[in-house]
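Many introductory courses stop at the sequence. We go one step further.
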Amino acid sequence: MNKMILIYAFSLCSVWGWDALQTTAQVASMLNDPKVVIIDVSELDTYHKEGHIHGALRTDISAWRTAQEKHFLLKTPDEIQNHMRSLGINSDSNIILYGHLGVAKDLLTSTYVYWAMKSSGAKNVAIMDGGLEQWKAEKRFVLSDDPKAADGNFTVQKMPEMVADLSYVKQNIGKVAMIDARASENYFGILASNGVERLGHIPGAMSYFWTYSITPELKVRPTGELKKIFSEGFGLAPAQPVVVYCTGGLETSFNYFVLSGILGYTNIRLYDASMREWGNRQDTGMIQYKWEEFHPITEVIK
């Protein structure tokens, strides 16, 4: 019976594609699938003390980011490739990420790693909804061992269309919709963001605090609700260019995951350096005490 379930699950992935958000039941049905790689994104002590899903290897945010003056950026392609291979990831792997959701921000490591993998060319990457807490609540077993994996053969293929840098943002103010994932008081400019000198937001950017997309139980809100928020509330079209940013790249990775992964928007760029770069310079525009809507003025600069 288990073999039949696995074959059925694999067939669904082949026919209908790979859903970016997977339920605990879906993950449980794929535990023995050799093409599925499950990654726990917790810190080492949490990984051992709280346990992990059978066969799940561990990564954390330090494996993906490197400091650049006052901000952080994704590590080099070679570093990303070596790390993904060390996790047993192949070019055709189906990757499932999950976190230990003690607080809301624990979600952000999962979504940042999701973006890091997708922007490095990984095809099938997903996040398990509800994290390990949901898994445990359903009485599913966890282990506290330290599993190993044979090195994979994943090869990085950079996806520059998923990345925004300082130059792209500067050139596309007023031309591309931008969404600020910080809390409203940071966007509005009455409270400074951690590590950011200047107050306010990028000119023309709209505000959408990333936590609006999750329930009090730290699960992702229903897809239909999210679709209405961005298509009706923000007026965004599925192929419309959008830049998402926040304080330093983590919060906005959740908005990236929702827009690109769950809703299927095809032209989303994440500004990794975000306000830790933009808001610490003197040659970048800032708007304070103003709520903004996007009104395009000219064609997009490619």
